[in-house]
Amino acid sequence: MYFVYILECNDGSLYTGITTNVERRLHEHKNGKGGHYTASRQVQHVVYTEEHPNRSAALKREAEIKKLPKDKKLQLIAP
């Protein structure tokens, strides 16, 4: 099982990624092991997750979300 997730950073930006374990990945991002983008922007918390049956589906959805303008991402994560 794979998850697409969106993180909110301290500067208000949103980061989208995929993982098999959201809690572990959040911990990695918070400890500077998640990549350059999140290391420089300090991750606050997970604001959105989607479950996908396989890596391929998760990667396709991640790419779709990354192409969205920020206002559409905010609509996606709104309760």
CATH superfamily membership: GIY-YIG endonuclease
Task: State the distance separating the first and last CA atoms.
Answer: 24 Å
- How many structural domains does the protein architecture include? 1
Largest sheet: 3 strands, antiparallel
State the helix count: 4
Query: Helical proportion?
Result: 40-55%
CATH topology: GIY-YIG endonuclease
Overall shape: it is globular
Proportion of strand residues: 25-35%
How do the strands of the widest beta sheet line up side by side?
Answer: 2-1-3
Unreliable spans are: none
Structure overview:
With 79 residues, the protein is α+β, with helices and mostly antiparallel strands. The protein has a single domain (2-70), classed as 3-Layer(aba) Sandwich (GIY-YIG endonuclease). The chain has four helices and three strands. It has helices spanning 22-30, 36-41, 55-67, 70-77, and strands at 2-9, 14-19, 43-52. A three-stranded antiparallel β-sheet has the order 2-1-3, sandwiched between helices. Strand 1 and strand 2 form a beta hairpin. It is globular and about 30 Å long. The mean pLDDT is 96.
In short:
The chain has 79 residues and is an alpha+beta fold. The chain has helices at residues 22-30, 36-41, 55-67, 70-77, and strands at 2-9, 14-19, 43-52.
What structural keywords apply?
globular, GIY-YIG endonuclease, 3 strands, alpha+beta, 79 residues, single chain, 4 helices, 3-stranded antiparallel beta sheet
What is the secondary structure topology, with strand pairs?
Elements: E1 2-9, E2 14-19, H1 22-30, H2 36-41, E3 43-52, H3 55-67, H4 70-77
Antiparallel strand pairs: 1-2, 1-3
